[in-house]
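The data layer described in this paper is built around a simple, fixed record for each protein. Such a record has a labelled line for the sequence and another for the C-alpha cells. For reference, a complete record is included directly beneath this paragraph.
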Amino acid sequence: MSQHNGSDKDKKTENIYGAYDWLKSETDKTQSAIDDGSDKPSLEIIQEPKKGGFETVKQFAKKNKIVLLVIALLLITVIGYNSYRKEQQIKAEQLKAEQQKQEQLQKQEQLREEQLRQEQLIREQLKEEQLRQEQLRQEQSKAEQLRQERLRQEQLRAEQLRQERLRQEQLRAEQLRQERLKREQLQKLSEASAYSQSGDKYFRLKQYDRAIEDFNKAIAFVPDDAATYLNRGTAYLEKGQYDKAIEDFTRAIQLNPNYTKAYINRGNAYAKKERYDAAIRNYNKVLDLSSNHAEAYVGLGSVNHKKRQYDKAIEDFTRAIQLDPNYADAYYSRGFTYFIKMQFYKAAEDFEKSCNLGNSNACREFNKLREYR
C-alpha cells in the first residue's frame, strides 16, 4: 500500500511539474501575444491536454484544486514578474532616451557654447581688427600731421627766407636811398654852407641886402637850418626890418627850442620896437635855459635903461660883468648908464675898460669924458 501511495505521489508530482511547464509555456505565449498587441490570448490551456498529464484542465482542476491554486499563483507571479520586467525595460529605455536626450542637450549646449565662443572670438577678432584699423588710422593721421607740419615749417622757412630777402632788398634799397639822400643832403649842405659863408661875409661888410640874398639861397637848399634863419633875422634886425627879423628868429626857435641866441635876438628886436615886456620874456627864457648867460643880463639891463630904471639896469650889467669879466658891451652899457646918472668917474672907468677890450664906441666916450674933465 505504501508502495502504491508512493507511486501515486510521484505521479502527482510529475503531473504538477508537467502542468507548471505547460502553464509557463502558455503564459509566455500569452505575454508574447500581449507584447505583440494581440487581444486574443491562447486557449490551448483549455483546449489542449498536456501529454502525460490529465485529459483536460477541467479534470485536473476538479481533482487538484490546491495544485491549481498554486499554479494560478505561480502564473500570477510570472505574469507580474514579466510585467515588472517589461516596466523595468520601459523605464530603462525611458532612462536611456532621457540620457540620450540629455546627451543631445549637452551636445546642443556644447555646440551653442562653441558657437558663442566662436562668436566671441569673432567679436574679439573684429575688435582687434577695429583697434588695429584705428591705430593704423591714428598712425596715418599722425604721419599726415607730421607731413603737414613739415610742409608748414618748410613753407614758413621759405616765407621767412622770402621775407628776409625782401627785407634785405628793401634795406639795400633804403641804404642806397639814404646814401643818395645823404649825398644830395651833403651837396645841399655844401651849397647852403657856401651861401651862408658868403652871407656872413657880406654881413660883416654891412652889405645886408647881399647877405640876405645869400641867406635866402642857403635856406632854399636847407630849409630846416635854424642858424641860417638866425643869420638872416640878424641882417633884417640891422636893416631895421624888425617884423621880418622876429619871424626869422621865431622860425629858428621852432627848429631848435633851446636856441638861446635866437631868444636873445628876438628880445633885441622886441626892444627895438619898444615892446619891452615881450623882450623881457625872451631874455628870461634864456636865463631859464642857462642861468649864467651874460648876454641875457645885458639885454635885461638895456630894457631897464630904456624904461629909465637905471639902478636895475646897473644891477643887470654888473651881473653880466661878473659872469663874463671880458664882456666889453656890458662895461660900455653900464658906463653909459652911470653917465646918465651923472656918475662920471664910474662911467669913465667902464668906458676905459670897454675901450681896452676893443669897443670903439667906448673909446670915443672915454675920450670925451677925459676932455670934459
